[in-house]
Specification:
The complex is a heterodimer of chains A (248) and B (481). Chain A is an alpha/beta fold and 248 residues long. Chain A has nine helices and ten strands. Chain A has a domain at 1-82 and 163-170 and 193-248: 3-Layer(aba) Sandwich (Rossmann fold), CATH 3.40.50. In chain A, the strands form two sheets. Chain A has a six-stranded mixed sheet with strand order 6-7-8-3-9-10, sandwiched between helices. A four-stranded antiparallel sheet of chain A has the order 2-1-4-5, with helices on one face. Chain A starts with a strand and ends with a helix. In chain B, a hairpin with a 5-residue loop joins β3 (109-115) and β4. Chain B is elongated. The chains are: A alpha/beta (248), B alpha/beta (481). Chains A and B meet through α2 and α4 of A and α6, α7 and α16 of B.
């Protein structure tokens, strides 16, 4: 089975300084993989490389079997249309309503309004949002709702791969649980491949088949959370213990 | 075993299928497409570019049924071929390109109408019925039309979706085609059933209408009215802000230790010191224009004192303050509005309030004070360069020396013109600061509002400065001449 995402000996730098080296892991179709690590360890930068916003200093990143950075511009855009990305903080367009935010990727595909409207309503519903939020602007929404709208925007294009950058950060446990339930439901019904960056071990346990841990500028460990918790590597053990001790 | 005739319809970019294709030519006028290369081209671009009738081997159907089947297949073949020839003939894609760029390639959407030996009809969906394949507007419209036709011809047919890759959009397309009457028999996988179920449970969302009920010709009038009322309202609020500033200013005289001196100093540097270069440059250029043109006009006359008077009064009284004001409004006024706006959006102003700090005193007061200090100084700076370059240009034009003209300036131009210009600079600084800070305060939490208020800040400040300058010209008409 060809992996949806494949990192091979990737080196990532920031302002010319290497922050991650020798990164290599795969994400298979339909799989949910968590990418975890301490703050500032380069997780979001790795995600930006995966989308093709940045170029790795060394190594190869493949997405749907394609070397993203070697593709022609148009082909790269087509490929990105198969990926839903939820950025940290939502990154909603503040001057657009919720409806327009979610509809934007469909308008880019030149769909007409009669098709866009039901798709937006469905995406809002999938993200667990009531239809009444559609005419509101992002500044009128709570943090949890902003994240859900961002999820709806990433889902409206029916993505094959969903990239989530700390989707539950800043959410209370109830909203966070509800959000993970939405993701689980989507994964079960739509078979979407998910790569999620999170510090929320509880969420990762519920959602992910595997977890990849980065730290100290490299890949520390990879595997199921249960097995990683049995790891003898003190850095891995500390990471999980510390997180589990954190009150919900 | 059922005998079957199949009408295949293909939509979307795709790789050519192998093994199933049977070129069909029965009507002698082109019929279905004949060659392999053409098949590839059509499949790459066009919905329903292909239609064939094929007969499965070993058929044992009756002659009547067989005739009916062929007739049906021919009609479809001719129809789709005609559509293709009429609309899509010249749009062939390069199959080699498709092969080179596999990420482009999507499995096509296919639809076949099959009539079984027992008379039952079945419409079988295959390939990809997803947003990625169906999102092309023309393709979608054509597909909708064609499948609608097929569905209407076979109302009683069962639909088999099991072989198709379906997503929510594909399910939506089918729901639209079926309309109020979904097929009686629908064969689908549980995952596909859940897609349709989800659509049934999706409530419509309210979208505010953007339609304007007002007539087309009334729109400009309404825009003018709204702009005027908005401007008057802003000016009113600016005056209120001025009253607040005045109170703070008086308080600061009583309690100078509470004055935010560091912020004032920073703003003086940002607005004044960093603006010296551009003010000097523009002042010099305008001075050259005035001196050169005035020199040309008075070249043949012995009116050197008049020339010095023209340059002196115009620069000291009008051009110096105006230039400085316009530059500061464009450079610093906009920056103040944007900075305060961003602070408001990011919640920094609320944070100040939460810490018990008066944001008006911490953010507005230093900027206004700095502008009131800096503007007269910039006016003097602009005057220096304007006068020097103006007199220099005039001297060059009149072929005379520079210094006699310069030394004559204080004797010809009354000093009150300089003080008037400096006073104007102070007032202009206050206006620019009040407008910029007020509009920065008015920014709403969206990126569009920030841009709008910044633009308004520059435009309104310059307009008010010019208005005040006109008023000053009338009020002080007997002073300085």
């Amino acid at each position: 089975m060809e992996p949806v995402v494949s990192f091979k000996d990737v080196e990532v730098d920031y302002d010319g300084k290497p922050i991650l080296t020798g990164i290599g892991f795969d994400v298979l179709p339909g799989e949910s993989v968590g990418l975890v690590g301490a703050s500032g360890s380069g997780k979001t930068t790795l995600l930006r490389h995966l989308i093709g916003l940045n170029q790795p200093a060394h190594g190869e990143i493949r997405i749907f079997g394609e070397h993203l950075n070697q593709l022609p511009h148009l082909t790269r855009l087509h490929l990105r249309q198969r990926i839903g990305v939820l950025f940290q903080g939502g990154a909603l367009f503040s001057s657009l309503t919720v409806f327009e935010n979610v509809a934007l990727p469909l308008r880019e595909r030149a769909l007409r309004d009669p098709w866009i409207q039901p798709m937006v309503c469905l995406a809002l519903s999938l993200a667990g949002l009531p239809p009444e939020v559609a005419p509101r602007v992002p500044s009128e929404l709570s943090g949890g709702m902003v994240t859900r709208v961002a999820l709806a925007r990433s889902l409206v294009i029916e993505p094959e791969l969903l990239l989530l950058d700390e989707p539950t950060s800043g959410l209370d446990p109830i909203v966070s649980d509800a959000f993970i339930a939405v993701l689980l439901n989507l994964q079960k019904n739509l078979g979407i491949t998910v790569l999620i960056i999170s510090h929320d071990i509880r969420a990762l346990k519920r959602l992910c088949h595997r977890v990849v841990i980065v730290g100290e500028g490299r890949l520390l460990a990879e595997g199921r959370i249960d097995s990683l918790q049995q790891s003898r590597d003190p850095r891995v053990r500390t990471f999980f213990r510390l997180d589990e001790d954190t009150p919900p | 075993m059922a005998t079957q005739t199949t009408v295949n319809c293909v939509s979307g970019p795709g790789q050519p299928r192998t093994g199933r294709w049977t070129p069909h030519r029965r009507d002698g006028t082109g019929g279905a497409l004949a060659t392999r290369s053409r098949q590839i081209k059509h499949m790459c671009h066009e919905p329903f570019a292909l239609a064939t009738a094929e007969r499965s081997s070993g058929s044992t159907g009756s002659p009547v049924l067989w005739a009916a089947l062929l007739s049906f297949a021919d009609v479809r073949a001719r129809e789709t071929s005609r559509i293709f020839q009429k609309r899509y003939h010249l749009k062939a894609c390069d199959p080699s390109k498709v092969a080179r760029e596999p990420s482009h390639v999507m499995p096509e959407s296919s639809l076949s109408a099959t009539i079984h030996a027992n008379g039952s009809r079945e419409i079988i969906l295959g390939g990809s019925w997803t947003l990625k394949v169906l999102c092309d507007r023309k393709r979608l419209e054509s597909l909708e039309k064609q499948i609608g036709l097929l569905a209407s011809q076979h109302r009683e047919a069962s639909w088999n979706l099991e072989g198709a890759s379906l997503d929510h959009f594909g399910a939506l397309v089918l729901r639209r085609i079926w309309g109020q009457a979904p097929p009686a028999t629908l064969i689908r996988t549980p995952a596909q059933a859940s897609l349709f179920e989800r659509w049934e449970h999706t409530p419509p969302c309210p979208v505010e209408s953007t339609e304007d009920s007002i007539g087309f010709w009334l729109k400009p009038a309404r825009w003018v009215f709204e702009t005027l009322t908005e401007t008057v309202e802003t000016i009113g609020l600016v005056i209120l802000l001025f009253a607040k500033f005045l109170r703070q200013f008086l308080e600061s005289l009583v309690r100078p230790q509470k004055v935010p001196w560091a912020e004032i100093s920073r703003e003086i540097y940002e607005i004044g010191v960093k603006g010296l270069g551009i003010v000097a440059l523009v002042g010099t250029l305008i001075g050259i224009v005035i001196g050169y043109l005035a020199g040309l006009q008075l070249q043949g006359f012995a009116l050197r004192s008049f020339l010095v008077f023209i340059i002196g009064v115009s620069v000291l009284r009008e051009l110096g303050p105006m230039l400085a004001a316009i530059l500061v409004a464009g450079r610093s006024g906009s920056a103040i509005t944007a900075e305060l706006g961003v602070m408001k959006i990011r919640g920094e102003i609320d944070a100040l309030r939460a810490m018990g700090v008066d944001p008006a005193y911490r953010l507005l007061f230093p900027r206004l004070v700095a502008l009131m200090i800096v503007m007269p100084l910039l006016v003097g700076w602009s005057d220096c360069f304007g006068l020097a370059s103006g007199i220099g240009a005039a001297a060059l034009t009149l072929h005379t020396s520079f210094f006699p003209l310069l030394y004559a300036l204080p004797h010809i131009v009354p000093i009150v013109n300089l003080w008037l210009g400096v006073l104007k600079g102070l007032c202009f600084g206050l206006i620019i600061g009040l407008v910029a800070t007020h509009l920065g305060w008015e920014v709403r939490a969206d990126a569009g509002s920030l841009g709008q208020e910044t633009t308004r800040s520059v435009v309104l400040a310059i307009t008010l400065v010019i208005a005040l300058d006109a008023l000053a010209a009338v009020l002080f008409q007997h002073i300085g001449f």
